[in-house]
Amino acid sequence: MTTTLQIPIFPLGTVLYPDGRLPLRIFEPRYVDMTKACLRDDAPFGVALIRAGFEVGRPAIPCEIGCTARIAEWQVPSPGLFTIVAQGVSPFRIVDRRTQQDGLIVADVELRDPPAPTPLPKAQAPLGSLLLKLIEDLGAERFPQPQRLDDADWVAYRLAEVLPIVPERQQALLELPDPLQRLAAVERALQELRDT
Q: Does residue 117 fall inside a structural domain?
């Protein structure tokens, strides 16, 4: 059964994945109000890669596929400024969107059903080992807990977050419906990086 929600959309120049952590500085009034409402109502918002436009100023056009987010940490260092850490929850597809008078985009979205847990295949075990090394090198605090190094989707998403690939390619990984397809695409991206 498809779950539909109405949520505010935060178009950004980056891609958020399920379980991913995204630090944000929020200062534009429309997003400050959105943050206050999400905190007050314990409600999610949507993060979507910008298809056209910019993060600041006039409302950007978001990609159709994004990821819902919940505010995991927040501070108010000064009036009108939030620093938050958003945590990705579930991919969604925008069904309909409209822009409010204040410039905030609100959308009706369909949540994508989470895939069945998929063990990391033996052939891709080196990807799990690479991710473990990256976690040790970059610091475990940069990665969601608990670590699931035996889960194909978790490994694919975490590698996609840290690989030096363009946002459009990160977006294409989010749009893939199958964990093994995503893992294979990450493996191809790694091979291309090694070959350059």
A: no
SS3 for 107? strand
Strands 21-26 and 61-62: unpaired
- pLDDT tens digits along 84-141: 999 999 999 999 999 999 989 999 999 998 888 899 999 999 999 999 999 999 999 8
The reply to whether 15 falls in a domain is yes
Between strands 3-12 and 45-52, the pairing is parallel
pTM listed for this prediction: 0.91
* Helix or strand run (H / E) with residue 70: strand 65-78
Please check whether residues 30 and 73 belong to one and the same domain.
yes
* Same domain (yes/no): 61, 80: yes
Give domain status of residue 165, yes or no: yes
Closest CA to 138 of 16, 193, 147: 147
